[in-house]
Amino acid sequence: MMINYWNPIEEIDTVRRQLDHLFEGATDTGKSSNYPSWAPAVELWDTGDTLILKAYLPGVKADSLDIQATRESISIAGERHPEDLKEGTKRLFSDINYGPFRRASKLPIAIQNTKVEASFEQGLLTLTLPKVEEEQNKVVKVNLLDKGETSQAALEASHNS
Fold first, then answer.
1. Kind of pairing between the strands at 117-121 and 124-130
2. Residue of 150, 35, 23 whose CA lies nearest to 102
3. Helix (H), strand (E), coil (C) string for the chain
4. Would you call 76 exposed, middle or buried from its count of C-beta atoms within 10 A (0-12, 13-18, 19+)?
5. Are 53 and 41 in contact (CB under 8 A)?
6. How many angstroms separate the most distant Cα atoms in the chain?
7. Average per-residue pLDDT for the chain
8. Cα 112 from Cα 25, distance rounded (Å)
9. How close are the terminal C-alpha atoms of the chain, in Å?
């Protein structure tokens, strides 16, 4: 007698693939150039003075990207096209999403949207988003008080200078 062990991960993966297949047809409008069909994966880091947003866009050409920044959000849009196949070649299977995409992210901190810098290398878009001045973590030097001097007097002296 053969014993089969139940593998819940395998079953979840099977259900996920079935749902993907089910919704694949429902979202295909025939107007793929007008409707986003996928969104890139992104990461957001806080370095103190800036936010760094990285978007993974393999197969996307830089000239198809449209990046827009407000003080509170970033929007990245573009399109990924499938490779042209040689005559007589058939694509048998593909997990890669093609077509237009749009990814908008609300930022946790206000940025200086006029000073955003972007670089795009090997499918990795990196946006450097400088924080507005009042959002930056400022380091202020704290002076020790001389004996007999009160902290209020020190504060007044520092405001007057």
1. antiparallel
2. 35
3. CCCCCCCHHHHHHHHHHHHHHHHHHHHCCCCCCCCCCECCEEEEEECCCEEEEEEECCCECHHHCEEEECCCEEEEEEEECCCCCCCCCCCCCCCCCCEEEEEEEECCCCECHHHCEEEEECCEEEEEEEECHHHCCCCCCCCCCCCCCCHHHHHHHHHHC
4. buried
5. no
6. 91
7. 80
8. 42
9. 90
The two tokens of residue 5 are 């062990």
At 131, list the tokens. 């924080």
CA–CA gap between residue 49 and residue 40 (Å, rounded): 25
- What per-residue confidence (pLDDT) applies to 74? 93
Report residue 98 as tokens.
Answer: 């093609």
Rama region for 81: left / alpha / beta (φ>0; ψ in -120 to 50; rest): beta
Residue 58, phi then psi, degrees to nearest 5: -65, 140
> Amino acid identity, residue 34?
N
Find where tokens 């197969």 sit. 59
The CA distance from 11 to 6, in Å, is 9
Q: What are the mean pLDDT values of the chain's consecutive 10-residue runs (161 residues total)?
A: 74 76 54 65 93 95 94 93 90 88 92 94 95 73 64 50 49
